[in-house]
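Need the bound structure for GLP, inputs here:
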Amino acid sequence: MQVYIADDGLRAADLTAELMIKAYHDGARTFGLATGQTMVPVYQALVDRIRAQGLDVSRDDLQTFNLDEYVGLPATHPGSFRQFMQEHLFSPLHLPSERCHLLNGMAADLNQECAHYDELLERRGLDIQLLGIGTNGHIGYNEPGTAWESRTHRMRLSQDTIAQNRDQFPGDLPEEALTMGIWSILQAKAILVVAIGASKAEAVAKAICGPLDVNLPASALQNHPDVTYLLDAKAAERLLADQSAKEDRMVIRRV
Ligand code: GLP
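Answer from helper R.:
Posting the output first, comments after.
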């Protein structure tokens, strides 16, 4: 496991973008993507770097798969993850929508929608998965208690998550989502986890140094052979306090 600690969130976001573009130059073409406020500077840095390098990713065989989407929201709703991605990444990069996969939370049969997404994911395979982390340690919308064998599934959001996300949501926050499962996430060849801010410090420390715990979904990432955490100094504070016991498990770099 690699852990990069940057002085601030913008630097952590920019380094994330740099690693994603490096993966692209090394042949990665299937990217698992995340939403949330942490990803806003990450996508801004990605767009800036792609433009600066004159890369035209719209004409490539690039495909993206998002982690999750709310149940019952039309794709055009300003709070949908489709809209978030459109605004922050797909439109600026002119990515054609047929290559940008998101779950449809309005599907008539949500189980079938999840099964179909799993088929697409398994056929294509994720080269790299980008993740944020919830303050309760959720990844995607896999809340505490989610089975680690889970494929894409429907999830009722925890009260913590609802409280955390309600204020930023335009309208009534849906209380259910479809999400890639923990097993699905762990199939990616490489995983980048970005965490910015003191509110994430405890979840980050537990995810990296704590015991494997079904109530801390991000701890499942300890079972993956290629995980990189990108943190700002505040998100790293608790980890640095705990780190002595697990130095053999990770390489820490200050950037
Ligand atoms: C959201 C998303 C997650 C995200 C996490 C953190 O609700 N479903 O994929 O990583 O919670 O969000 P933020 O970056 O806004 O703190």
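Comments: The longest helix spans residues 9-25. The two ends are 16 Å apart (CA to CA).
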